[in-house]
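Researcher: Sequence recovery benchmark, item below. Answer with residues only.
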């Protein structure tokens, strides 16, 4: 499937999730992510503030702050560049041109300092290819992070598609965490779930 079609199909799947089910899936993704993070040693973590139909990241951000991690979030500067800015508990957030909440802080964190990068996904496949919003912001950003940085995508399992035709500029993820599993390069372990993975 071409990326445009994938975005459309996943958009429909996202709309069909009932609020109570979403809450339940959010908790499963959160538990699986915590399990993954407990296996990693890291200090600086990049994450983002989720939109209503995305996996909820508020719970994740609160957890990271409680664990005394340095948290940074994306901020759009110079109209099309994404930088990482520090976010501390109780800091103000404001909406950018895409309606996404971003930190007010101008304190930039160099991408080289980021140990774990948590990114949004529209769709993914078993080879850890990612489809995003279609503007390539994360592809450009992920090229700047250090070699040691673990690139983690979070998604609902229904965002999995058979195959994504990746372009040269697309950056693959190291791990994908869903409500059903934690998918690693060439390896997967089943996370917290009560459903069979039929995909
Ligand atoms: P997304 O990753 O958001 O799903 P795409 O991978 O389809 O989106 O990329 C969208 C556009 O972003 C591309 O057509 C390209 O113009 C631009 N782009 C992405 N990555 C780069 C890059 N590293 N350098 C230059 N342009 C890029
Ligand atoms: Mg891309």
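Model:
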């Amino acid at each position: 499937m071409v990326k445009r079609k994938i975005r459309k199909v996943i958009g429909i799947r996202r709309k069909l999730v009932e609020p109570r089910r979403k809450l339940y899936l959010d908790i499963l993704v959160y538990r699986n992510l915590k399990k993954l993070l407990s296996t990693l040693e890291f200090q600086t973590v990049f994450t983002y503030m989720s939109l209503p139909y995305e996996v909820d990241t508020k719970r994740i951000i609160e957890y990271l702050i409680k664990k005394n991690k340095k948290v940074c979030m994306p901020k759009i500067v110079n109209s099309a560049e994404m930088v990482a800015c520090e976010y501390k508990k109780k800091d103000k957030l404001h909406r950018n041109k895409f309606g996404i909440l971003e930190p007010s802080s101008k304190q930039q964190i160099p991408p080289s300092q980021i140990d774990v990068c948590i990114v949004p996904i529209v769709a993914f496949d078993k080879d850890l290819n990612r489809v995003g919003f279609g503007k390539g912001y994360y592809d450009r950003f992920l090229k700047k992070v250090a070699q040691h940085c673990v690139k983690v995508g979070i998604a609902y399992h229904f965002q999995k598609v058979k195959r994504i035709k990746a372009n040269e500029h697309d950056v693959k993820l190291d791990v994908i965490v869903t409500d059903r599993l934690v998918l690693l390069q060439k390896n997967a372990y089943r996370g917290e779930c009560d459903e069979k993975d039929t995909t």
